[in-house]
Write a structure and sequence with these properties.
This protein has 10 helices and no strands. By secondary structure, the protein is mainly alpha-helical. Among the domains are: 47 residues; 146 residues, E3 ubiquitin-protein ligase SopA (Pectate Lyase C-like, 3 Solenoid), CATH 2.160.20.80. The chain starts with a helix and ends with a helix. About 2% of the residues have low confidence.
Length: 382
């Protein structure tokens, strides 16, 4: 069979050299007929065994059809027509069209890249928002645990085994220090929760005490007697809240009397029934706050006046028992009573009088008297 293949190749060569087509075709036929079975068997041996005989037949049939289609196109003159069309074509115009197509392709790629970058930004932004939400949730849980531990620690510190207030000077110092450290690390809502706990527990209220033992005195009604003149607070806020932000929080019924809230932000707070007597509100913000039944002074409105350094308050006449309200912003303050309006107009100063709802017509500005000249320096360390 090898010799026959050699003969076929020689016949092909002679037919091409002597330009004898019949001899070349005969050589082609001999070579293909003898070589095709060998090639087929070799290909079949290489094919995976998973291919069935039917699939092999389909593969051979597909190849045969493709070869027949090429021959048919050749006989039909398609390739000659393509050559003619190629000769008539202006390839410079085709080149220019190709350049334009390339430019459009680059623009499409750039647009696709911009879209992919935008989608990556959206996904990254959503992940960042979700991560921030989880961080806020974690911070809230951590703050809640810290506040709960504080509540338990203060209770253990100031109560005896029977649940009565038995705070001594050293325990009070520890309680004040712990409170100052905690309030400095909490947000506005956390500060409000701590203040409400301390106020409702009577730890911010001056309580009457036994003059010898210093123990608080029961009032016979299940509570403790207040003593605004000589009473001692378990926790004296002092300047702990000065300049702090407790805006938009719930401070109802909270006793903030005598606290230094200079330049603090109390805007939109709920201060209903809160006690702000003798509280330093110099340059504080109360805009939008709810002050329904909020106490700003004791005694009679006609004789009530703000606190003055080194002057003892008179809780009967109200002299020096009131809050310092100079330069406070009262814009849009809610549930302002007539007595509150008159007191605030009298002692808030000319600048703040313009922010009080309802105006201050007919109410004298008493802040100019010598005894009631206030400045930030007077109360920074009060």
């Amino acid at each position: 069979m090898i010799w026959l293949n050699i003969v076929g190749i020689i016949a092909i060569g002679c037919g091409i050299y002597f330009k004898y087509t019949g001899l070349a075709i005969a050589g082609y036929t001999i070579s293909i007929v003898l070589s095709a079975p060998t090639i087929y068997r070799g290909i079949c041996a290489k094919l995976p065994r998973s291919i069935s005989n039917r699939q092999r037949s389909q593969l051979v049939t597909a190849i045969t059809i493709m070869i027949a289609l090429v021959v048919l196109l050749k006989i039909g003159g398609l390739f000659d027509n393509i050559d003619t069309l190629s000769a008539r074509t202006d390839w410079n115009a085709i080149g220019a069209l190709g350049l334009w197509s390339g430019a459009l392709g680059q623009m499409a790629i750039a647009t696709l890249a911009a879209y992919v970058s935008w989608r990556q930004y959206i996904v990254s932004r959503d992940l960042t928002i979700e991560q921030n939400r989880l961080n806020r949730l974690q911070n809230t849980l951590t703050q809640q645990q810290t506040i709960d531990n504080y509540f338990q620690g203060i209770s253990d510190l100031v109560l005896d085994d029977e649940g009565f207030l038995e705070d001594w000077p050293q325990e009070r110092s520890f309680a004040i220090g712990r409170t100052a450290a905690l309030l400095g690390s909490l947000n506005a809502t956390g500060k409000a929760r701590v203040l409400q706990f301390l106020s409702r527990s009577k730890l911010l209220t001056p309580l009457q005490r036994d003059l010898r033992l210093g123990r608080v005195v029961l009032n016979g009604n299940g509570g403790y007697d207040e003593d605004r003149i000589q009473g001692v607070r378990v926790i004296n806020l002092g300047v702990i809240l000065a300049g702090t932000d407790i805006a938009q929080t719930d401070l109802r019924w909270t006793d903030l009397s005598d606290a230094n809230l200079i330049r603090s932000d109390l805007s939109k707070c709920n201060l209903a029934k809160a006690n702000l007597a003798r509280t330093i509100l110099y340059q504080a913000k109360l805009n939008g706050a709810d002050i329904r039944d909020t106490r700003f002074f004791y005694g009679n409105l006609k004789t009530a006046s703000p606190r003055v350094p080194e002057r003892s308050p008179d809780y009967i006449t109200g002299e020096f028992s009131g809050a310092v309200v100079e330069d406070v912003d009262f814009t849009d303050i809610q549930h302002l009573s007539e007595q509150q309006r008159k007191y605030l107009c009298a002692w808030c100063g000319e600048k703040s009088r313009q922010t009080i709802p309802g105006g201050c017509q007919g109410i004298q500005n008493q802040l100019g008297s010598i005894e009631h000249i206030y400045s930030a320096r007077s109360f920074d360390d009060d």
